[in-house]
Amino acid sequence: MRKPRWPRPRGLRARLLAAFVLVTVLGAAASAWASANAASAALVSSHQQRITDTVAAQVEAAAPHLTYPPDQEALDRLDQAVGGEALVTFGDLASAGAFDTGLVTGEIREAVRHGDEVVAQRITRDDRSWLLVGTPVVTTALDGTRSPSGIEVYALRDLADVEREVDGLTLAAFTTATAALPLSALLALLAARGVLRPVRDLRDTAGRLASGDLDARSEPQGADELAELTVAVNEMAASLQDSMAMKERMRADARRFVADVSHELRTPLSTLAAVVEVLESSTEGVHGDARESAQMAISETHRLIRLVEDLMEVSRFDAGTARLHVEEVDVADTVRACLRLRGWADRVELEAPERVVLRLDRRRLDLIVANLVGNALRHGAPPVRVSVHPLPGGVRVTVTDAGPGLGEEVLPHVFDRFYKADRSRTRTPGSGLGLGLARENARLHGGDVTAADTGSGARFDLVLPEQEEER
Amino acid sequence: MRRVWAAVPVLVLAMGCGSPASEVVEGGPAPTGVAPGVTLYFLDDQGDLRPQLRDTGRLGTIPEAMSLLLAGPGGSDLRTGIESNGPQRMTVTVREDVIELMAPLSADEVSPAGIDQIVCTALAAHVQSGGSPDTGVRVGLTLPTPESDGIRTCPVEH
Questions:
Q1: CA distance A399 to A6
Q2: Which of A157, A223, A270, A288 has a Cα-to-Cα distance from A335 of 20 to 30 A?
Q3: What was the ipTM of the complex prediction?
Q4: Domain segments of chain B as ranges
Q5: Do A60 and B31 touch (CB under 8 A)?
Q6: What is the number of other CB atoms lying within 10 angstroms of the CB of residue B62?
Q7: Residues A383-406: pLDDT tens digits?
């Protein structure tokens, strides 16, 4: 794009102002110029006519007293009668004290020699404007016929006075045009305010809508295009609000459905779990396929119970009803207990200082660590390492494994619900909610869980800040 | 849009350049009044008016022409209808469309043809010095008669 040569006004106000002022000043200047021009022309023309008439009258008054054909003395007398700078010629004779004949232009000489009129022409001498008047002196016969006498009279008259008057008129015109400037600027500002206020209101409304205040509306004023735009924006906001409300309602319905379903499933599952335990203790004497089926039923039931429990936890987070139960917790001890209780103590290398005591929710810390380690054991490969690092005002727990790691396309979705890195491996012991729940729990503490690929496996970092006193 | 803005300075320039025209303008008829002499009217043998160019070298004024007329035809073979031994000056007032002559003559001293001489000579001088040919002449005599006081014109057709 070509760069503009000078900075163009950007704002509506500046553009309106510039256009208004330009148009007004141009209009004022044009009209002032035209009237000044007309007045000047009239002034100059009447002044010229007066000069011409005066010269003609002077010649006519002196003519009857001139000897004809005139001698040098007669020419000088006529020259004096005309006065000022004058030139009288008759054939080769010219009056004494005449101005330079070179000033008489060929045009006017031609007009005088072959015409029967007083003629005038404006000329410039010494950078000043002069009127050159020329006339033949004619003889009139008794019957009134006029014929040239051969005497020519030229007179130079200064036009400085009239030029000064014309200059005055031009100055007045210029002043008028300039006087229109502040007035037009004022009008432009008023007009701009009328246009800009609704525009600014609309901008504010749009800003509030964008920042989530769907109740924002602007009051349409008047019945112009801006008012129509305001009405249209209001309608848009209303329909947006409706669709947002509907979507919100549908999402709430879906969440409540999940919560209800998992709650309803829990009671029969508890019964089923009890039954399965009885079944488990009675498989001692059974052999073959029956025993295998029984074992499968037991493990699937446990998995179902864990899934339902995770779902309930998820719906608590979604409903915003999850609460922290903060207490003094030794993080190292909690992690150690977590591994021991789940029977992972001999499959996981733990690296932890003796005591790291913080105010945290013990149950949720246990859940996070269990999810991270369980995930590493299921999807990664040994050695799985857990390390606990005290931080100023918090703790970091890192879980690493030596498995296939996390690919580019997996990394962003690791914490998504029911996300499977390997689509073909649809049946895994996990619920598909574990990592997501771990992150939700960490965030409930004000901390976070992040995933990274170490190049030789996956690494999950849990960072938890210490909690304030119980509120 | 850019083209519209570019037109603005052109417009301004075009407006600013109102240079005054310096062509030759005409301003009425040329002055007249030069002549090699003055024309006086006398009478021939038949009593008709005859113009006589008196070679004075210049046209002169109506009073001068009147003085020459009153002085008589001189050595020529023309006659005059005015008593030549009377006073030789006349008061002349030129108005808009009439020339008023106050002749120091009584009706006895000037014949009707002599009044025509005065009228024609005054009109000739008036026309030659740029006056209108339609101007009338009123000749005032010292003892006015009703018929002598009207506005007259020269009976000679040129």
A1: 62
A2: A270
A3: 0.80
A4: 36-152
A5: yes
A6: 24
A7: 888 989 888 888 899 998 888 878
